[in-house]
Design brief:
Shape: globular
Largest sheet: 6 strands, mixed
Structural class: alpha+beta
Number of strands: 16
Bound molecules: manganese (II) ion
Mean pLDDT: 96
Helix content: 10-25%
CATH class: Alpha Beta
Strand order of the largest sheet: 4-3-14-7-8-11
Order of helices and strands: EEEHEEEEHHEEHHEEEEHEEE
Radius of gyration: 17 Å
């Protein structure tokens, strides 16, 4: 095959492997922790979590210093467990997955930050407009190197946290997810035919807050590589 110019091939590192994980699509879950749903003015008892997406090339590597995003006065961090999907069974069947098929589709896990231009998101909500400029901008989806699921221990028992300049801002447990990992993969597969290379940002615990130029963010999940991103 010949291309007019070199195609962009977004990818994420894998712990202790030279091979990289090619990213197909990035799906995100909104309001998948009750405490965060409440801090955003929602009611987790009445509304189910929901999906949105970011472009695949929004991923960035771990350990980088990023240019501060344009067009925002209120950039928020959302630390999230990232689930990476792969496997031959998923390639053969990516739709209407059972919970067992959804579990088999998990390649591994990483720590991600769903950066959000909260001011643009608030405006989009108010005017009933799309969230794309609030969520899907350049470098809005940093992900740590992926740990294969078999080496990640009991991910449901892991804690998740985010520190800014060494100060704890967000803290939660993966077991607090409203839709657990197989449930959200199965649910997502009723909307899309999932493919190897798809990433899912599984939602953020409470404590989202603004970051500024010069800030250093550290996202942690037990047994996974810590994510460190600077502005
Ligand atoms: Mn999020």
């Amino acid at each position: 095959m010949k291309y007019l110019f070199d195609p962009v091939t977004p990818s994420v590192a894998i712990v202790a492997q030279a091979a990289r994980f090619p990213v197909n699509r990035i799906y995100c879950v909104g309001r998948n922790y009750a405490a965060h749903a409440r801090e955003m003015g929602g009611s987790p008892e009445r509304e189910s979590p929901f999906f949105f997406s970011k472009p695949a090339n929004a991923v960035t590597d771990n350990g980088v210093t990023l240019p501060f995003p344009s067009r925002t006065q209120d950039l928020h961090h959302e630390v999230e467990l990232v689930v990476a999907l792969a496997g031959e069974a998923l390639a053969a069947k990516g739709q209407e997955l059972s919970l067992k098929e959804a579990t088999a589709a998990i390649y591994g896990y990483g720590v991600g930050i769903d950066f959000t231009r909260r001011d643009l998101q608030a405006e989009a909500k108010e005017k009933a407009r799309p969230w794309d400029t609030a969520k899907g901008f350049d470098n809005s989806a940093p992900v740590s190197a992926l740990t294969p699921a078999a080496q990640a221990g009991q991910i449901d028992a892991a804690s998740i946290s985010l520190l800014v300049n060494g100060e704890l801002r967000q803290q939660g447990m993966i077991s607090d997810l409203i839709w657990n990992i197989p449930e959200l993969i199965a649910e997502l597969s009723t909307y899309y035919r999932l493919r190897p290379g798809d990433l899912i940002f599984t939602g953020t615990p409470a404590g989202v807050s603004a970051v500024r130029p010069g800030d250093v963010m550290e996202g942690r999940i037990d047994n996974l590589e810590t994510l460190k991103i600077s502005f």
